Request: fold
Amino acid sequence: MRVGIGYDIHRFGSDAPLILGGVTFPGEPGLIAHSDGDAVMHAIADAALGAAGLGDIGDYFPDTDPKWEDADSSLILTEALRLAAEKRSLYPVNVDVNVVAQRPRLGEKKAIMRGRLAEILSLPAEQVNLKARTAEGLGPVGRGEAVEVQALILMEEGPPENLRTTSGSPGR
Ligand code: MG
Reply:
């Protein structure tokens, strides 16, 4: 078993749509970033790389690389998981995420985000937890200037049962 921690923060102010956990929030200001700014995907990707001892997302997805400009950040998370699987044979067991923001209210979108993350992580939704809270008006996040995300991931060696093929190799 290996554990990894991830953190990300992005400032509001982009004309692009706000995307968190792969879900778009129409009418909300977007986050400034080289990619689509999905801080939830970035924090989980960093946690996975951390668990695998593979550095951080800046090592693989530099913001100077045009390939990742406006990129769908689910691709960043997918790639981080692929690296952990290929290089360390590590697969997610469960993920816990804190989204700290004054806005948007995640509301009913929380369940959709959870489902989308579970799909990417190849986990049942019950093994992907998402918590939303505000910063109580304190600091830049509290002033509504940014979204902050913390993620924790537990990974285990060898493909889990649901990803095993008859040949015994990873099913993805
Ligand atoms: Mg980021």
Q: What stands out?
A: The chain has a mean pLDDT of 93. The first strand starts at residue 2 and ends at 14. Helices lie at 39-51, 57-60, 73-88, 109-121, 139-142. The chain has five helices and seven strands.
